[in-house]
Design goal:
By secondary structure, the chain is an alpha/beta fold. The protein has twelve helices and 20 strands. The strands form five sheets. The chain has a ten-stranded mixed sheet with strand order 9-7-5-2-10-1-11-15-19-20, with helices on both faces. Strands 14, 16, 17 and 18 form a four-stranded mixed sheet that branches. Helix 3 packs across helix 4 (144-152). The two termini are 17 Å apart. The structure holds inosinic acid. Inosinic acid (IMP) binds next to helix 4.
């Protein structure tokens, strides 16, 4: 199979890749393909809640914090200040990559301004979810919400703090006092020791020290030299803390705004903002999902699409393509193009459904509602389309797709008014082609 030519060699573009749905859209594969065209791949938000899967040469790699660009020899990878960094998980990830023969050396750079994910964040995430019972968010239990809460409440600890051991220990003693109060009195959970955590984290700090830099200086200098950067988003727009289905969201800015605050690279540098959208929809965890399929059909798509969480192994809920939600994601991110993934999963179905509007209390609604209660009442209005037969896995260009599959792509594009630029037809790096 020919290598896909995904952008002109003339001018290297700085690219942002963002999930256009509820995460798990296949961003990692698109990042992997586009990494060939850039010099640096940078993560800007989230943390070890992400599970980015890349399949190459029959081998499957799952990334949680390290940008998936690390698989490409010679490319640099940055973990920006907007990420909440779990150093225990990071060292585990570095070790498992080394086991697979992927060397980090001087290719991974961590921001000194990133906030640290602490052991009590994980404990509080689990305790809070358990306490909420059926009203839980359905988090990944990686401590993400509590870590971002501390950042905003101005009681977080940053990577740079690891290198001032005396004040790090003092800070932790104060913070842990409050955490223990909640753990013991509100959640009835065991307390933690500030000094033990300090000992553990100071040791981890000495291991990761060679990777740490002011990434704003590093990125600015690279950009000024003409090096191209790809910003790799985690989760998706509908899980964004501002634009998602709040409170059933993650705690970071998973949409375009997070790129500037999470890397310290201003808007003027970015040439393309690509949204990755799956040809159908999935979500993990709780929260409204208007175009959700019924259980039996959803299970069929789940099995076909391997829709199980890469971080938690949880089965993903499956639904039809929701164009109301996708159009909204296009608006709030200003996507310049869409990368459509997993269209092969929809093969051999007699009919396909696309949600083109919602019915809410008898009224037609074409814009994604802000309120959770309103969204929960929405009924999908579908347009039915004829399905296609056959396996798309070997398609190498749009012309190789059955006419019904092309119509499906055209229909999405017509509605969202953003060009679909690439189509992916399988998990492997090679199973992708440009739209035209
Ligand atoms: P948290 O990010 O662990 O706090 O989880 C909040 C919500 O975001 C839950 O519904 C999770 O299932 C969802 N979520 C977090 N990370 C991912 C991801 O990488 N893919 C899909 N859903 C995610």
């Amino acid at each position: 199979m020919k290598k896909p030519v995904v952008q002109s060699k003339k001018k290297k573009k700085n690219i942002v890749i963002i999930g256009a749905q509820w995460g798990d859209e296949g961003k990692a594969k698109m990042v992997d393909v586009l990494t060939e065209q850039v010099d640096i791949v940078a993560r800007y938000q989230g943390g070890s809640n992400a599970g980015h899967t890349v399949v190459t040469g029959g081998k499957k790699f799952v990334f949680h914090q390290i940008p998936s660009g690390i698989l490409h020899k010679g490319k640099k990878c940055v973990i920006g200040n907007g990420v909440v960094l779990d150093p225990v998980a990071l060292i585990g990830e570095i070790k498992s990559l080394a086991f697979e023969g992927v060397k980090i050396h001087d290719r991974l750079i961590l921001s000194d301004r990133a906030h640290l994910l602490m052991p009590y964040h994980r404990l509080l995430d689990g305790a809070s979810e358990a306490r909420k019972g059926s009203g839980k968010i359905g988090t990944t239990n990686r401590g993400i919400g509590p870590a971002y809460m501390d950042k905003m409440a101005r009681v977080g600890v940053k990577v740079v703090d690891l290198f001032d051991p005396v004040s790090f220990r003092q800070k932790l003693r104060i913070i842990v006092k409050e955490k223990n109060f909640f753990l013991k009195n509100y959640y009835g959970r065991p307390m933690v020791s500030a000094d033990k955590i300090a000992d553990q984290y100071l040791k981890l700090g000495s291991i990761i020290k060679p990777l740490i830099q002011d990434t704003t200086v590093y990125l600015e200098s690279a950009l000024k030299k003409g090096h191209a950067v790809l910003a790799e988003g985690a989760q998706g727009t509908l899980l964004d803390v501002d634009f998602g289905t709040y409170p059933y969201v993650t705690s970071s800015s998973a949409s375009v705004g997070g790129v500037c605050t999470g890397l310290g690279v201003g808007p003027r540098w970015w040439d393309e903002i690509y949204g990755v959208a799956k040809a159908y929809a999935t979500r993990v965890g709780e929260g409204p999902f208007t175009s959700e399929m019924d259980e039996v059909f959803g299970e069929k798509i789940r099995q076909r699409g391997g829709e199980f969480g890469a971080t938690t192994g949880r089965p993903r809920r499956c639904g039809w393509m929701d164009l109301v939600a996708l159009k909204y994601a296009c608006r709030v991110n200003g996507f310049t193009g869409i990368l459509l993934t997993k269209i092969d999963v929809l093969s051999n179905l007699p009919t396909l459904k696309i949600c083109t509007s919602y019915q809410i209390e008898g009224k037609k609604v074409s814009e994604f509602p802000a309120g959770l209660n309103t969204l929960s009442k929405a009924k999908p209005v579908y347009r039915e389309m004829k399905g296609w037969q056959g396996d798309l896995a070997h398609a190498e260009s749009i012309k190789d797709l059955p006419v019904e599959a092309r119509r499906y792509i055209d229909e999405i594009e017509k509605y969202i008014q953003v060009p679909i630029q690439w189509v992916s037809v399988g998990p492997d790096r090679s199973q992708i082609f440009p739209r035209s």
